Amino acid sequence: MPAYRFVRRFEEPMVDFVRRGIEVLERMRSLNSTMAMWSKRFLWTMGILWVSLSVSACSENVSGQGRGGGAKRAVVVPVTVSAAVEKTVPVQLKAIGKVQPYNTVAIRAQVTGELVGVHFTEGREVKKGAPLFTIDPRPFEAEVKKAEANLAKNKAQLENARRQTRRYGEVAHKGYVSQEVHDQVLTNATALEAAVRADEAALESARLMLRYCHITSPIDGVTGETKVDLGNLVKDNDDANPMVVINQISPIYASFAVPEQNLPEVKKHMAAGKLEVLATVSGNERDVVKGELSFIDNTVDPATGTIQLKATFANKDKFLWPGQYVNVVLTLTTRSGAIVVPSHAVQIGQEGQYTFVVKPDSTVEYRRVTVGWDVDGELVIEKGIAVGEKVVTDGQLRLAQGSQVRVVEEGDAGTGEKAR
Predict the structure, then answer these.
(1) How far is Cα 398 from Cα 337, in angstroms, rounded to an integer?
(2) Angle at Cα 379 formed by Cα 367 and Cα 309, nearest 5°?
(3) What share of the chain in percent tops pLDDT 90?
(4) Does pTM surpass 0.70?
């Protein structure tokens, strides 16, 4: 039942209800002021609701008269359009990548001792062979001297044993000494030769331990935070607590994943030549870093259905940094004769992707499209749009099939030129 008919039907009963309520209030005023107050508020509320309903009914009645009294005029929607053009575009794969160092070295002590020197500033670049740490070398210098002394002693004894061997050999041949004595002299000389070789090895080991007291950088890179301070005792081969970590960042990697469906195309084009990879940092898309694809993993991740790839960048200006997330664009090849439109011309509805095409009679046609890939703000249209057709780029929310439009701005996809 329309609201205005409802009001007319119950108008007289409502008026009578309010009048009788007022009479009851007058009688209750002297008996219970609190009850009278709440009853009065109730009647006021009912009156306000009734007035609101009456106004709504009048508005509906007038509106209905207006709809029935005149013909609905078609609305012309102002829109901006762009013409679909044919051009040569790159075939690209886009992904989110993570920057990784080219090499990473965790510096650990190979001897136990007190740290007496730190020769670098954390967070700065170091060259290969540059000194990093010094562990107290005095105990190891003493070991070297001890090994040198043992070696000298055994060498002297060996020389004496060799002379005795020559002497005893001459007299044993003439029968002046027994063969047993001669054999004992030979045995002593042989044992001393072995002792000298052992002393030489011990001396080399002591010298090696002494060299381990002076830790140098094995690569060119950037140092991280120093994990140990001067005066602390460092342990040899402490895997859980490296002294510092050095990352090589020039060159540098960017690791990213693409769907396994793209793997055959990637392998095909990589076998034909180098594949260019572009990387940009979010919020700074104007600075583009160029590199090339250098690695395809040997296994597809069964959990995600993706294959891991790596690109190598020279990174001479240190623009990329380990751990950073970047937007990666892998260019496989180029495709000529592709139809492109601005990306904001394509909308997504319940039936999929669509666009509005402006017809010569200034009406629009709702048309479903099959979209390829995005190239610099433009979409490659695989199916649904012909070259030269004009698509709506702004104002789609007010459009439906057959809507009348007025073009207020026009341009060509990919030209960046607009004409009013």
Answers:
(1) 33
(2) 135
(3) 60
(4) no
CB count, 10 Å around CB of 248?
A: 19
pLDDT of residue 303 exceeding 70, the answer is: yes
Quick one: which of 341, 345, 335 has its CA closest to 388? 341
Q: Binning pLDDT at 50, 70 and 90, where does residue 54 land?
A: low
Cβ atoms 119, 133 nearer than 8 A = yes
Q: What is the dihedral of CA 84, 85, 86, 92, to 10 degrees?
A: -70
Give me the residues paired with residue 244 across strands.
107
- Closest alpha carbon to 392 in 404, 377, 407, 375: 407
- Residue 126: both structure tokens together: 């170091």
Dist CA 292 CA 294 (whole Å): 6
**Residue 276 CA, distance from chain mean position:** 19
Backbone phi and psi for residue 277, each to the nearest 5 degrees, phi listed first? -125, 130
Question: In this structure, what token pair is assigned to residue 186?
Answer: 């030979």
Q: Which two tokens stand for residue 383?
A: 């199916």
Placement of tokens 């508020």 in the chain:
41
